[in-house]
Amino acid sequence: MDRITMKNMGFYAYHGVMAEEKVLGQRFVVSLELTLDLKAAGRSDRVADTVSYAEVYEEVRRVVAENTFDLIEKLAFEIGKAVLTNHPGVEALEVKVEKPGAPVKGEFEYFGVTLCLRPSDI
Fold first, then answer.
1. Partner of 83 at 20 to 30 A CA spacing, among 35, 51, 53, 101?
2. Phi, psi torsion values for 25, nearest 5 degrees
3. Can 96 be counted among the known catalytic residues?
4. Span 49-77, mean pLDDT?
């Protein structure tokens, strides 16, 4: 299946279970892989036959920056829900949310979740 990939979009936001995460905030990294038929866009060279990366980026930014969730699982779900609701041509998507500054003692690159959604999941 055809895919659009949007990798490592960074945002500063206020998600987390701990109270200080909601006050101090931290960086989150979001990646998307949208599954949809891109052949029409390949033939026509028209953005109307595909999904606008700029529109999807703004939807992701809005969900991440304008909400506060305890869990990154919820954040990933809401991102997926927004994209699937606004772009009916998307047949499935994978949302990855990384939390590189998680308040956990120890050495790590990031903690994260990957959620796979279809329109029927929302």
1. 101
2. 75, 175
3. no
4. 97
CB contact set of 7 (below 8 Å; sequence gap of 6+):
31
What pLDDT does 88 receive? 95
Question: For 55, what's the count of Cα atoms within 13 Å in the CB-facing half-sphere?
Answer: 11
For 87, phi and psi rounded to 5 degrees?
A: -135, 80
Question: What is the Cα–Cα distance from 118 to 80, expressed in whole angstroms?
Answer: 9
Q: How confident is the model at residue 70 (pLDDT cuts 50, 70, 90)?
A: very high
- List of domains in the chain: 3-121 (3.30.1130.10)
Q: What is the pTM of this model?
A: 0.95
End-to-end CA distance of the chain: 21
